[in-house]
Design goal:
- The structure is a single chain.
- By secondary structure, the chain is an alpha/beta fold.
- Helices cover 38% and strands 21% of the residues.
- The protein has a 7-stranded mixed β-sheet with strand order 3-2-1-4-5-9-6, with helices on both faces.
Length: 273
């Protein structure tokens, strides 16, 4: 979450607060598993880049305890500022412009950040520089191409017209995202990027969830697409009628689909020779 130019979600609205809550509820369990995989422990110094709603920063504060430290950054820190913990430092920070102290953290983590950056390699490089030798980098990003993996022929219980609409309009939305500099396939490439950057003990996994429209699980998608489709109409990728058809899919109880694939990857900075 950020307030950078072109950021489409208004952090001052109740809808955005709800969207961030649903986003956390859906994704925090996997994030916590990844962080437990690398062994986050009491006393660690952790950097959360693009901390958004702050749920993972809160978890890290509890995990590292009073002898540890969590530095949580974002371009808009209003939600991070609400965290009441003695071991957190909140910074307004742009990972593409502002330097980080080198070799200062046992863990650097980001979620749904790199995919939105045209200069994602610069951001990843800065994250790696900030990690101590032997420390860990964990990143999670969406593979947006997974959003069109629906096999229309294998969904006999879902109206064919609805599935065709979803695939067609999602493809147009992805085209807009690519024009806007979003890395639509970055999630699956994270382990390769970590390896190329010199990290070792690299691992990763991908996850997706099935959901029915008209449920709270689909509300996250509806809230997200409500804003994104407005931009798509303005940019000429959708008509207003297309937008209405697309949003209707998120409330139609006859429609069920999978979320885009979400990948997490982790790697350790080599010990100093």
């Amino acid at each position: 979450m950020s307030s950078q130019p072109g950021y489409i979600y208004d952090p001052a609205t109740e809808d955005e607060r709800k969207r961030l809550r649903l986003l956390s509820e859906a994704n925090d369990p996997a994030t916590v598993e990844h962080l437990e995989t690398v062994g986050v422990a009491p006393g660690w110094r952790c950097l959360e880049v693009g901390g958004g709603g702050g749920s993972i920063a809160r978890w890290l504060c509890d995990r590292v305890g009073p002898n540890g430290l969590v530095v949580a950054t974002d371009l808009d820190t209003r939600f991070l500022d609400e965290i009441d913990a003695p071991n957190i430092e909140v910074r307004r920070h742009d990972i593409l412009k502002d330097e980080l102290e080198p070799e200062a953290y046992d863990l650097v983590h980001s979620r749904f950040l790199l995919e939105h950056l045209a200069d994602y390699k610069i951001a990843l490089e800065r994250m790696i520089v900030a990690v101590k030798p032997g420390g860990w980098v964990v990143a999670e990003d969406v593979d947006f191409l997974g959003a069109i993996m629906a096999d229309i022929e294998q969904r006999p219980g879902v109206p064919r017209e609805s599935m065709e609409t979803m695939v067609e309009l999602t493809e147009r939305m992805l085209a807009m995202a690519q024009v806007g500099g979003v890395q639509t396939d970055l999630g699956r490439r994270l382990p390769e990027l970590f390896h190329e950057a010199g990290l070792v003990d690299v691992g990763g996994e991908g996850r997706t969830r099935f959901f029915w429209s008209g449920t709270e699980q689909s509300e996250l998608g509806r809230l997200s697409m409500d804003q994104v489709t407005k931009i798509a109409v303005q940019a000429g990728f959708l008509t207003e009628a297309d937008r209405e058809r697309y949003l209707a899919l998120f409330t139609d109880p006859n429609v069920g689909t999978y979320t885009p694939l979400i990948f997490g990857a982790w790697g350790r900075k080599p010990e100093t020779a």
